Amino acid sequence: MLLAYNDLANIVSKKQGVQGDFFFKTVTDMANVYQPKGLFIPINEESGELAEAITHGAIATIWDSERKLPSYTPNHFPVFFTNNLTDTIARLLQCYIEKLNGETNKQMEITNFNFSNKKLLNKNNETYDIAVMLNKIKELQQNNTKRRG
């Protein structure tokens, strides 16, 4: 089960760009990694530029409301604005885990969450929860892959 646009729209209310019934295959905080149908979340300056993320396949972003959105951002490009990226990531992961709960016994495609844990773990206690949730999703992905084989 892939993370859907509507899943994210239920978590983050302030948004711009196209709305639709589409899915994210990748969620990452690193602009320089291949991210097909990606959701890019720039946690800090080391995450890279939005343009690079778009080049690598990002189709939407979660953006810190305090930062200016780059002027090159396409008008139709979905942008979700938040005041707290870490909290939004934690809520997104919790939502996705609940969505997967009980559904991983079927053959299905699962969204790939690719975060640089080192950055997340150095922020605060809340980010420890994020690391735990990422590990849980990784286990679910591995179990799903074993069932396909």
Summarize the model shown.
By secondary structure, this protein is α/β, with parallel strands linked by helices.
Walk me through what this model shows.
- This protein is α/β, with parallel strands linked by helices.
- Helices cover 39% and strands 17% of the residues.
- The chain contains five helices and eight strands; from the N terminus they run βαββββαββαβαα.
- The chain has helices at 5-11, 50-55, 85-100, 117-121, 125-148, and strands at residues 3-4, 15-16, 23-24, 26-28, 38-40, 58-64, 79-82, 112-114.
- The strands form two sheets. The protein has a six-stranded mixed β-sheet with strand order 2-7-6-5-4-8. A two-stranded antiparallel sheet has the order 1-3.
- α3 runs parallel beside α5.
The main pleated sheet reads as:
6 strands, mixed
How many DSSP-defined strands? Answer: 8
SSE sequence, one letter per element: EHEEEEHEEHEHH
Query: Helical residue percent?
Result: 25-40%
Strand content: 15-25%
Structural class: alpha/beta
Q: What is the radius of gyration?
A: 15 Å
Which whole number gives the mean pLDDT?
Answer: 84
pLDDT < 50 stretches: none
What coarse outline follows from CA principal-axis ratios? globular
Strand numbers in spatial order across the main sheet: 2-7-6-5-4-8
Q: Please count the helical segments.
A: 5
The N- and C-terminal alpha carbons lie at a distance of 18 Å
